[in-house]
Give the backbone structure.
Amino acid sequence: MNTAPDARAYPNHPYLAVSAAIIRDGRVLVTQRARGPALGVWTMPGGVVETGETLTEALVREIDEETGMAVEPVALAGHREVVVRDDQGRVSRHFVILCFATRWIAGEPRLNEELSEARWLRPAELSSLKTTDGLAEIVAAAFERMEPVA
């Protein structure tokens, strides 16, 4: 278990992150977080952009690291801003997340210390899950932006 302090808690600036609406055969991959701050919530895989990375490089790397899958980013599907405040009103988390419509290429999601479960779902099935805010809208936008495979 990692006991190091969370460097992203109480930040001096927002963190730029990417996430992927990975689409395969009319379904999207959603993952359930295995640890805080979103423990048990269903969301899209992704993570923080590192210095020197383009957005798509970060997305491909994060999806490989987090799920073991190969993907192809297709288009920006939208964004989300996550600002969490503590009981004293101080910002304890601040992320700007760019969400991409993403085509699955290879691999199956593997569970790890970050992910407790993964499911391929049709967009209509998302309503039965506890998800991050705006997930259904981002998934709908991702499906709209996917170009047909020739």
User: Anything to note?
Assistant: The longest strand covers residues 70-85. Helices lie at 55-67, 135-145. The two ends are 45 Å apart (CA to CA).
